């Protein structure tokens, strides 16, 4: 049993930018000495998130639209009254989605479905450089 | 420390079918040689999800209804324009809920509350055979 | 590699009470003999949840308000018809958020962002004593 951790930087282009991380994460798992275990993908920050989705042009817009229905930008947020940075909606969306994703792998292969990719979703209102933690635990 | 992984097939009866997995997962943990650790339950696929809930006839309808409020079937989805398979709402719901659940166990017993069951929720628009990964890490 | 588990009690003050657990969890990680790994925070119970958020007076109200938009208290719930305990909305919110959070740590330090705290959110309709499981796996 061992733990391997890697910190990566990703650069988002602005609000609702969805970035496919599958290849990078898959390569990190394959190149590790660990054959079976889980990888945890964690967003250090409170206005971004990770999940899985079929990464195609329709859904990468449909998914942020659903979050907007739940938490529109143009309603009142207590966060705004204090900080005036216009991203109250970003914070509540990120807390709902959660900052971490755990994916098992077997014989070095992520247990993803054929149409299932691992993505980062930028929820803040501008482009950001993001720090993600990739941590493998297994044997 | 060790890792034990099992892939299981489950058969859903259609959209919003919620299946109680608690007994199967509990038995898998008990029969393993691992006393303390976590089990990760992962859905390989982009239109199903896992969570915990009090599994009773009211909530197994209340919960899908909430998801329908957030992402109704009868609004426009970019996914539909490209794929015409009528399940854009299924995808966005699944990405919101996330594909994985992590549950700790102590002395072979899952740390669930009395009224807390582990469930799979079918979000696709038809019955499906689903591949779930159960992975135990512990000692 | 080792596993260390701790069960803690927390006391919520009522519906939507959000409690900052960061210091307690951080101390538990630092005092363990494990330098690198993940900590899983798990709510034993079906009407509470854990996530990360910037813990400040605005957001601790904004976030529950979003959940209320998705699942208001004053609509019909099947759960209510059977149990008459007035917390159908609490259950569906908790199942959406999920009961567990996984956070990696490196050299004994949680990989949280500067403005990112770990919180428990009470979703039930009254004050509760809650049982949370903290489980560290690593080396």
Explain what this protein looks like in three dimensions.
The structure is a homotrimer of 139-residue chains. Chain A is of the alpha+beta class. Chain A contains four helices and eight strands; from the N terminus they run ββαββαααββββ. The first copy, chain A, has a five-stranded antiparallel beta sheet with strand order 1-8-3-5-6, with helices on one face. In chain A, a hairpin with a 2-residue loop joins β5 and β6. The mean pLDDT of chain A is 97. Chains A and B meet through β4, α2 and β5 of A and β1, β3, α3, α4 and β8 of B.
Most residues in contact, chain pair and counts: A-B, 35 and 34 residues
Helix content of chain A: 25-40%
| Helical stretch tally of chain A | 4
* Biggest sheet features of chain A: 5 strands, antiparallel
Q: Major sheet of chain A: order of its strands?
A: 1-8-3-5-6
Q: Structural class of the helices, strands and pairings of chain A? A: alpha+beta
**Arithmetic mean of pLDDT of chain A:** 97
Poorly predicted parts of chain A: none
User: What is the global morphology of chain A?
Assistant: elongated
How many beta-strand segments of chain A? 8
What fraction of the residues of chain A are assigned to beta strands by DSSP? 35-45%
Specify Rg of chain A, calculated over alpha carbons: 16 Å
Oligomer: homotrimer
| Distance separating the two termini of chain A | 4 Å
Order of helices and strands of chain A: EEHEEHHHEEEE
What is the topological layout?
3 copies of one chain form a homotrimer.
Chain A: E1 2-11, E2 18-20, H1 22-31, E3 37-44, E4 48-53, H2 59-70, H3 78-83, H4 88-97, E5 100-106, E6 109-110, E7 117-122, E8 129-138
Antiparallel strand pairs in A: 1-8, 2-7, 3-5, 3-8, 4-7, 5-6
């Amino acid at each position: 049993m061992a733990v391997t951790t890697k910190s990566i930087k990703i650069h988002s282009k602005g609000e609702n930018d969805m970035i496919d991380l599958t290849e990078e994460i898959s390569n990190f798992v394959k190149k590790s000495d660990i054959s079976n275990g889980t990888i945890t993908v964690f967003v250090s920050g409170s206005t971004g998130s990770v999940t899985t989705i079929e990464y195609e042009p329709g859904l990468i817009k449909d998914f942020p639209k659903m979050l907007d229905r739940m938490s529109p930008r143009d309603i009142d947020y207590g966060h705004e009254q204090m900080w005036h940075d216009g991203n109250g909606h970003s914070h509540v969306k990120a807390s709902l989605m959660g900052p971490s994703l755990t994916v098992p792998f077997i014989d070095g292969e992520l247990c993803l479905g054929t149409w299932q990719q691992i993505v980062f979703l930028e929820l803040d209102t501008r482009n950001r450089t993001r720090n993600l933690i990739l941590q493998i635990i297994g044997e």
